[in-house]
């Protein structure tokens, strides 16, 4: 899917953004967390915002919405 929609430069920027956002996070290697970040990055790129800064910002916005721990009820 990714290769059908994006050129090489955009795909590289998307990968760099994902790695940059997840790099120093304790849950940065968690599949669910990475998926949530990647989905935001993909939506950003599909909207035409493909610069590395824009993609990193989109990934960081996903972290705000992705709880790292379950909150007590």
Give an account of the 3D structure:
There is one protein chain. The protein is mostly helical and 73 residues long. The chain has a domain of 51 residues. It is 67% helix and 0% strand. It is built from four helices and no strands. The C terminus is likely disordered.
Short description:
Helix 2 runs antiparallel to helix 3 (31-46) and helix 3 crosses helix 4.
Alpha-carbon distance between the two ends: 39 Å
Please state the average pLDDT score.
87
SS element count, helices:
4
Q: Beta-strand percentage?
A: under 5%
User: Structural class given helices, strands, pairing?
Assistant: mainly alpha
Shape estimate: globular
Helicity level: 55-70%
In this structure, how is the largest beta sheet organized?
none
In total, how many beta strands?
Answer: 0
- H/E topology pattern: HHHH
Radius of gyration: 12 Å
Uncertain segments = 69-73
For this entry, give a set of tags.
single chain, 73 residues, mainly alpha, 0% strand, globular, disordered C terminus
Layout of strands and helices, then pairs:
Blueprint: H1 2-5, H2 8-22, H3 31-46, H4 52-65
């Amino acid at each position: 899917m990714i290769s059908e929609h994006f050129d090489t430069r955009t795909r590289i920027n998307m990968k760099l953004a994902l790695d940059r956002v997840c790099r120093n996070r304790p849950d940065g290697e968690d599949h669910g967390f990475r998926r949530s970040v990647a989905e935001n990055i993909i939506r950003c790129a599909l909207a035409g915002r493909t610069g590395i800064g824009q993609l990193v910002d989109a990934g960081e916005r996903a972290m705000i919405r992705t709880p790292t721990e379950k909150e007590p009820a």
